[in-house]
Amino acid sequence: MTVAANDTVLDAVRAIVGDTIRIGAAKLDIDAEFPELGIDSIIAMELMENLSRHFGIAFTPAQFLTVNSVRELAAFIEGHGTAPATPPAKPGVPPAQFGRLDTLLGTVRSRYGVDLTGRRWESVDQIVDELVSNNLERVLAKVDASSLFAAPPAPAERPASTDIAIVGIACRFPDAPDAATFWRNLMAGHASIREIPKERWDWESCYAPVAEPGKTVSRWGALVDDVDRFDAAFFGIAPQEAALVDPQERLLMQEVYRALQDAAIDPGTLAGTNTGVFVGYEYSGYEQALRRNQERLPGLVCSSASPTYYLANRLSFLFDLRGPSESVNVNCASSAVAINRACLSLAQGESDVAIAGAACLHLAADDYVASTQYGLLSPDGSCGVFDDAANGFTRGEGVAAIVLKRLDTALADGDRVYAVIKASHQNNRGAAGSLSEVKHEAIADVIARCWDKAGVARDAVRYIELNGYAKKWADSFEFEGIRAALGGSGGGKHCALGSLKGNIGHLEPANGIAAVIKVALALHHKRFPATITRRTPSSFIDLGNPSHPLYFADAPIALDDMRDDAGAPVCAGVSSFADSGVNVHIALEEFVARSPAAGVAGGPQLFVLSAQDGARLADYAGVFAAWLEQAGPEVCFADVAHTSQVGRAALPARLAIVAASLDELRGKLALLRERGLDNAGKLESHGIFCHTLGHVGHVPLASLVTERMARAQLELARAEGQWQQVALLWVHGVAMPWQLAWSGLPARRISLPGYPFARERHWYALQEPGAAAQASLVPEVHLPAALSLPEFAVAADTPREPAALLERFLRERTAQLLDCAVADVDPEATFAALGLRSIAIAELVARVNRLLDVNLAPTVVFQHPHAAALAAHLAQAFPDEVAALLDTIAGAELPTHAAVPDILAPMQPHGAGTPLFLVPGADGSTLSLKPLCEALGTGRPLYGLDAQGLDGQCALPASMGDVVAANLAAVRRIQPYGPYRLFGYSNGGVVAFAMARSLMEAGEEVAALYLLDSLCPEQRTATELDLVVDVFSHVMATLGARFDVDMARLEAVAPDERGEYLYRLMMEHGVVLDRQYFLTSYRIATTSERLARAYALAPLPRAVDVHLIRALDAYPDAPADYGWNRYLVAPLTAHDVSANHYAVITAGHAAAVAAVIAAVETPAADDAVDDAVDDAVDGTERPPATKRGKAGNRRRGAPRPVVLES
């Protein structure tokens, strides 16, 4: 097999990829990863076929997944195939090695940030030499470089020590959103059991005071709040998928992240490591409901969403963890088994870090009914462990995770250790009289073997957290098992028995981990809380007998009161049993530091905080401020600063505060809360720095500052106590080697508040079997087909007040579009906040139009953004239509009326300064510019100008003059006089140019004109029909359909019938859109293109500040100015955004466009950042005379591209 010359293959691959994705080869970034180029699995299949056809090689999907960019793809092909008509390769590297080298180069580039793909490499040794000689520091910061190239390592030897440290804890229990609150509740003797609220499920519908078939005797539970809320965006999960994911899994993701935070571990540092995940569970009521309603769902339940076997696997996927990943279901002992498995994995060297977790939610009544039939539940809501009146348990909920390391590793890493797991042991009851029988011999065996394994004398055990059956008979067998295991004692009562079931109920699969967390916290805080389960001692349990060491922990017990005379660490055990026969016991020991931690000398330090966005950061700062108010004298500011730096992931929205004490930090957080994050830029003189990466008006500094520079700046800050420059660099994205700042200092890792996840609702409200009939509204009166949608029905209790009727209709239609319950649609929540996107909003408005026989544009939601507001508007604007609707419900005919909507759309009417008026592209709807509107923020008013005729009723404009006249009439209602600021996207740029010329000819001033990827009409080389097909194909692709339009057949169709032809073609391929909406959009688009091409261009009469924002992948053959400069007195300024013509206005790229506008509107802020970069790099402050001038001084002359990555 011949190896082709590198440049030849690369050029060919570049051309093929460009043709496939419709990007000019000259504009194609050969190092961009394929997802950045929009290459999904469908496009990949087409690309593979094109490559195989050209190079004459077989190309499989598995091979395609081994490469990430055009350059890597070319290198792979070079090593695996022969390009046609290419010269033979130079001798040297065996062909089979190219794929291996390319894969290695890709790994080095993506994982370690070292790009070596620009050279030809002959061997692995050559690459190693380059890494060692010039890039060793960057690689070693991540991992030992030799591990990248060496043969697979030999199996790890079993570590000498089997002691396991608990280094991180996170939990969400009833009335306790975190471990600190849980501990306070335990110490306060707080009970969280209460009557099940109606919003969970209606217990009255299936309740009976005594057991009956199909009924439950329990109306009680210890439940967690907001089980339907989840921060899907934080974990990169689409909202539709998030609604399908088991809420147990969703909450567990958040608690695992918080547990890693509590352990002061940046999750990113675990990627690719031998980190094991072990999760206990029992069942998923949510998944069962999904499967019963699968025909109503938009996706497959069994794909990757709800099944419980993904509980552990999704966590491994999410954080790229390469150790074991196991979900465990052995009923109530599940989480204890998971912890046992995690400890074994660590002890055997299988894992270096282990995460053990569990989740338990009770979302429906069916399991309550089943448990009642087995006699397990308490009718009075008690959990009377060891109580004489024990009559069963009350169900509780919880989600929890702990982070484990081998103790020697934890000590070497400087971790805070809650407690030490000395040993764990598991057995099974074996044969018995029944499957659920409790055998005290098996209990005694598992406890005795566990402590023997731990090497701890049984008379040294000071506390046992009971499994606690909460049944008088079964509890007595657990007591006998403990007594048999710990034996007789001449030392009096020295082993306390306790249970947390009275506090939070029985958490079933999560019971074991909840008990371990309780005991670990008690050992850490040096005090066991009182047990509140018992009122009268069980007559079956002889606690007072002096022959055994057991007593009940009725009151709090200090560890110092439990120690032996030698002062040895206190040992405590946790038991967790399942009625399936599984028994687990876990032996824990108090951790005693080898030497007291010395304090860090006083002086300024840098406290850092980050979040996914500004809203989360503001919440996080508030959480920290509240935590600091409660912080005791044991909290050291240096520990807080140290943990904030080394123990947290650096997220996009960042805050850095220079302070010298906790009091100073409290004061600055209070100042920030008072002024707000939006004004944080004015607080830098107070040592407060804030920035969101990718935010408008700033440039990314991370690419300008090398690791060596960052290290030098950090060393300087540590030496001089001047942290301002480090703060500025870090908030602008520069990675800091924080450990360097603490080298040789005794700072500790401590517990700090966990991340405040967004609380967005992701839920499918699904009817249980038989519920549909009960919930239906009868009798029903259906509207005439001409006026209604098939699913719209009016019940006997339909509101007769116009606004109330319309609000109900809007809520029902919104619920249908979101696939949720009507009750979950808040009438005062904006449609966007509820989750409706542009197409869904257009569909909603189309349904309103059909209901009332009116013609509203989708942009009506800008003025009336939620159901209540829109309903009130409709009732007021169309009283005759609504009255006719009410008559129709009573049997009358509905007359036809129409309304002419205003083309002005107040997209964001608040803020100071001159408004910016935005003209959309060929689709004519300012709804398409909503992502840009959101990216621009609330600083300046924003108004959109819809196309005439978008309502489906008004006549389409006959000329560009008609468009300009209507637009300026609307503009002058908001702003009668200049200076004006105009913006136009695509064809809207031509309209904005025409508006600017008309204003200037009338003597008005135009301060700024923004043309977003708007090609001058005379530069348009494609035919009008070609552009129509291109737009149509793009719209279909966004809706998930990809098919070719037969141009010959389309050309044969009469122009006025082409819209109908395309609509039928779309329907044939399974894409469903409202017909009237589609045809109106088609007519708007074709009219827009026709008017733009027919517009008679003439130069602007005076100089205007014109900015052309070009999509890099749109018009590769167009001149740099897109043809506009010949019509301008002064040349425009060009800015480049890495996107294609259609993607440039989407959420993924709108921020880059907004950044251009913000930089132009506030140039001084951009220059200040540039100066700050230079100051930070060289450590000096420039005198005012040497600082850069305003951006306005740089805008004249030939276009100078400014590439902004979105």
Give the low-confidence spans.
Answer: 1-5, 82-99, 144-156, 299-304, 695-699, 767-798, 891-901, 1164-1206
**Main structural class:** alpha/beta
Shape verdict? globular
Report, as a whole number of angstroms, the end-to-end distance: 42 Å
Q: How much strand content do the residues show? A: 5-15%
**Nearest-angstrom radius of gyration?**
34 Å
CATH C-level class of the largest domain is Alpha Beta
Query: How many separate domains?
Result: 5
Helix segment tally: 42
Oligomeric form of this entry? single chain
Question: In total, how many beta strands?
Answer: 30
Largest sheet: 11 strands, mixed
Spatial order of strands in the largest sheet:
6-5-7-8-1-9-16-15-10-11-13
CATH topology of the largest domain: Peroxisomal Thiolase, Chain A, domain 1
- The H-level CATH homologous superfamily of the largest domain, spelled out, is Thiolase/Chalcone synthase
Helicity range of the residues?
A: 25-40%
- Reported CATH architecture of the largest domain: 3-Layer(aba) Sandwich
**Mean pLDDT figure:** 81
Protein name: Phosphopantetheine binding protein
InterPro entries: AB_hydrolase_fold, ACP-like_sf, Ketoacyl_synth_C, Ketoacyl_synth_N, PKS_Beta-ketoAc_synthase_dom, PKS_NRPS_Biosynth_Enz, PKS_PP-bd, PP-bd_ACP
GO molecular function, one term: fatty acid synthase activity
Biased composition (Basic residues): 1185-1198
